[in-house]
Design brief:
There is one protein chain. By secondary structure, this protein is α+β, with helices and mostly antiparallel strands. It has helices at 5-12, 43-51, 106-119, 130-143, 181-192, 227-246, 280-293, 342-355; strands at 31-38, 56-60, 65-74, 80-92, 97-102, 123-125, 148-156, 172-177, 195-203, 207-212, 216-222, 249-256, 261-268, 270-273, 296-304, 309-316, 321-327, 331-338, 361-364. The longest helix is centred in the middle third of the chain and has 20 residues, at 227-246.
């Protein structure tokens, strides 16, 4: 996969003759890179969608497109003001990926692009599962033993399935700043069952950047191309999940016989596979957490004890979609029903990865 991080960086911070960068006064040093998986990959369609959501097109370059938007907040005097935010983005069709770049901070991103992703149909973050976050962290440490973690945030919720040795039913959040981040991160996971949300990696003489579990990278200094291979691994996994989900369907096929025409329901489901089965006792907890944390609502739920059978209808009231689920404990089969989009399904899958089964995988039903 070819990203244009280096070209964008050269555009934002041009080089002097002696190699030093000139930083424009209106820009800050950090660049936030937001990986967004999308079903819309044609620029004209994206332009129409973005402009209908308060993004104003600035220009098209041979390497990327740029848009401007804003959000409102109170200044120190209590007066309402508009905060402008400029985004550049690249379309990578082979990964169903939109790679957004901005020099605005993460709060500004959450107030603009973040809110757009949450409400718009057909867009979602290229999120990191807990296992993928761990894999990337360990790979960085292996390749760069001198890596420092000066900052991270982590959380634990009572229903997490990751092992916790001390008071596992307690909710926790933790923000770290210091010089022994690598050791502290592992200790919090081992003793308190906490999972990282953001990790700041500082690799001496190489690169300085942060990774957010949503798939947001904050580049601060060094060789920006280092981030490319991490983005490549992340977006490959998300693109493969989207490919499987995109094959699912719910439609009526017209069949013509000698006497009449019939409408036959055709449904192509997909599944979430578990390494360890869910039990009858976990069903109520899953329903509660789905409703509380993920803005999903479960209706018509039915579960049988013993060899688990569970079926239900799921409403995603943020994306206005409906789908059916059924499970034998080893997997959940998801069948589209109404107004379904991959972003709703991806969020459902993300819920299971983060809260129930961190080793869960998406499988295509034959």
């Amino acid at each position: 996969m070819i990203t244009k991080l280096e070209k964008l960086y050269d555009f934002l911070y041009p080089k002097k003759v002696l190699g030093f960068r000139i930083q424009p006064k209106e820009l800050v040093e950090k660049i936030n890179i937001i990986c967004v998986v999308s079903k819309y990959l044609e620029f004209n369609i994206l332009k129409e969608i973005l402009e209908s959501n308060n993004f104003k097109f600035i220009k098209e370059d041979q390497d990327f497109y740029s848009f401007k938007t804003y959000f409102s907040k109170n200044n120190e005097e209590g007066k309402r003001i508009n905060i402008p935010v400029i985004y550049y983005f690249q379309i990578i069709k082979e990964r169903s990926l939109l790679l957004f770049f901005t020099t605005s901070n993460k709060y500004d991103v959450e107030q603009t692009l973040g809110k757009f992703i949450e409400r718009a149909d057909g867009f979602y973050y290229s999120f990191l599962s807990p296992n993928l976050f761990e894999e990337i962290k360990n790979e960085i440490f292996k390749e760069n033993p001198n890596t420092v973690i000066p900052y991270f945030t982590s959380i634990r919720k009572p229903h997490y399935k990751i092992e916790c040795k001390i008071r596992p039913k307690e909710s926790r959040s933790f923000t770290y700043r210091g010089t022994d981040g690598r050791e502290t991160l592992e200790e919090l996971k081992y003793y308190y069952g906490m999972l990282p949300q953001v990790i700041h990696f500082k690799i001496p003489n190489v690169v300085d950047f942060k990774i957010d579990y949503k798939g947001i990278f904050t580049f601060q200094d060094g060789d920006i191309s280092y981030i490319n291979h991490i983005i490549d691994k992340l977006t490959y996994l998300i693109a493969n999940s989207k490919r499987i989900i995109d094959k699912s369907k719910f439609e009526y096929e017209k069949i013509t016989t000698q006497k009449k025409e019939l409408l036959i329901l055709s449904s192509a489901p997909w599944s979430i596979m578990f390494d360890k089965p869910i039990t009858f006792g976990e069903v109520d907890s899953i329903i509660e957490q789905l409703s509380k944390e993920s803005r999903f609502k479960i209706i018509n739920s039915y579960a049988e004890v013993g060899s688990l059978f569970w079926s239900a209808t799921v409403t995603d009231y943020q994306k206005n979609s409906i789908f059916n689920i059924r499970s034998n404990g080893n997997k959940i089969i998801i069948s589209p029903r109404y107004n379904n989009s991959f972003d709703s399904f991806l969020r459902f899958y993300q819920f299971f990865l983060e809260n129930i089964k961190p080793n869960a995988t998406i499988e295509e039903l034959q």
